[in-house]
Write a structure and sequence with these properties.
The protein contains 21 helices and 4 strands. It is an all-alpha fold. α4 packs parallel to α5, α9 packs parallel to α11 and α17 runs parallel beside α18. The longest helix is centred in the N-terminal third of the chain and has 23 residues. It starts with 17 loop residues before the first helix and ends in a 19-residue tail after the last helix.
Length: 461
């Protein structure tokens, strides 16, 4: 991965970082529909940038952050080498250098801003809207993890050491960016990318995803400002409305195009196994997703490891989730329904909350081809705190291996986890990770680890 010679990507004039990334998805670019497009002479720069952006986005959503947070939320367990240390909350500022660097390089913000520039110059307005949604997803995910990060002064060759923007200012800016993206997408104007691996340039799906992303980002701030629940509800009700409209990564059975989880397990099979908390929860519910998520252990049953236990003999991920071409969730119809449920509950509408929750259960059955009513349904006997707990529990299970499960846990405090070493999960399980030491060494605006907050601003207690 690229290492910066200047601080926070103030940032290297690298318009084409794509060469290395494109090799990981070369067959996608060799698609005849891409190569034979009549506009090839003018749009190749945009499409190559877009290729790298998508690859970078997929790596962020499936990579080291997803592994770490799946361990901390006890969906998975670290069972060997550094993953055991992570399970014991032993993490350093160098552990996620690549993930922080790639906010900006390697298909990150540099390439997104260049794509926005090219599409603007060519009046490809809808294509620009797609790029803006990618920027909001990238920066929203990053701000949820690190809090204050370079944004307003990043990707600026005149500023070598950009300031850290407040987490709130970033979220506010992303809401405006998404509003602009929706306007661009609704225009339908201009050339559209033939290599859109998420939605195939279906603008109606991108518009719905933009509304769902706005809802997600409003929820991120709801612990600080409960008024955000109403804002989230309004956006989610315009969001993703069917299973096939879900935003997912894309992979193939070609080795170089395989999923990040497959690639990790191919080289480090013993490092991660099922988390005991999630396995036990699925067993107690007789939940058919147990066999979808996990493989049988050596005894033919299903088992998980306790935090920090280091037991690699328990269940691993299933062949479904370790398939080379498995598409992992980024932002789904089910998540959108869970957001409606939580936001409706928090605004006093339990009837809408229950309906959305039950619709989410039905959507999950459809997604996994499960029997109708094989998952729970919730009637009006579920009310108050009991209803909220079920919304959070079902979302925790449904967002398997998704970074957002960690953000939900920080906001809702549910499910109630027993951390490594016991004690209070609110003080034992980390609520953020340190900034990259690469960034700190090149940007004096980044404080040393001892001066960094234990929580981000949107996670006050």
């Amino acid at each position: 991965m690229l290492k910066r010679k200047k601080g926070a990507i103030g940032l290297l004039a690298i318009a084409f970082i794509i060469a290395g990334l494109v090799s990981g998805c070369q067959d996608f670019l060799n698609n005849p529909e891409v190569q034979n497009d009549p506009n090839r002479a003018t749009d190749v720069q945009a499409d190559q940038l877009f290729q790298g952006i998508q690859v970078g986005q997929f790596f962020m959503q499936e990579g080291g952050l997803a592994r770490l947070f799946s361990v901390w939320t006890q969906q998975m367990a670290g069972t060997d080498r550094q993953l055991v240390a992570y399970a014991k909350y032993d993490i350093t500022e160098s552990d996620h250098d690549d993930e922080f660097n790639n906010i900006y390089t390697g298909g990150g913000l540099i390439d997104i801003r260049n794509l926005i520039k090219v599409t603007s110059e060519n009046s490809w307005i809808a294509y620009r809207g797609i790029a803006k949604v990618h920027e909001a997803l990238l920066m929203g995910t990053s701000a949820s993890v690190w809090g204050d990060i370079p944004y307003s002064e990043a990707v600026n060759d005149d500023i070598a050491t950009p300031k850290l923007d407040s987490q709130k200012s970033i979220y506010d800016a992303l809401q405006i960016l998404l509003d602009n993206a929706i306007t661009d997408l609704q225009s339908g104007e201009g050339y559209l990318p033939p290599n859109d691996h998420i939605f195939g340039a279906d603008l109606s799906k991108w518009i719905a995803a933009a509304h769902s992303l706005k809802a997600r980002l409003y929820l991120h701030w709801a612990e600080v400002d409960p008024g955000n629940y109403a804002l989230a509800l309004a956006q989610a009700q315009q969001g993703i409305s069917f299973v096939e409209g879900s935003m997912k990564t894309r992979h193939s059975t070609v080795e170089s195009e395989s999923s990040v989880w497959y690639q990790f397990y191919r080289e480090r099979d013993s490092y991660m196994r099922a988390g005991k908390f999630l396995v036990d929860l699925l067993v107690s519910r007789n939940d058919p997703r147990l066999q979808i998520y996990f493989a049988p252990d050596d005894n033919g049953g299903y088992s998980g490891a306790e935090p920090g236990e280091g037991n690699a003999l328990v269940s691993s991920l299933s062949s479904i989730f370790l398939a080379k071409d498995h598409s992992f969730d980024i932002l789904t119809y089910e998540e959108n329904l869970f957001m409606v449920a939580e936001a409706a509950f928090k605004t006093g509408d339990e009837s809408t909350a229950r309906t959305a929750l039950n619709n989410a259960m039905s959507a999950i059955e459809t997604r996994w081809s499960l029997d109708v009513n094989s998952l729970p349904r919730y009637d009006n006997t579920f009310t108050g705190q009991a209803l909220l707990e079920k919304i959070c529990e079902e979302k925790y299970i449904g967002l398997f291996l998704n970074i957002e499960a960690y953000n939900d846990w920080k906001r809702t405090k549910m499910p109630i986890l027993v951390p490594f070493g016991g004690g209070d999960p609110e003080t034992s399980i980390p609520h953020r990770i340190p900034y990259s030491d690469d960034e700190r060494q090149t940007n004096p605006n980044v404080p040393p680890p001892s001066q960094q907050p234990l929580r981000n601003t949107n996670d006050p207690s």
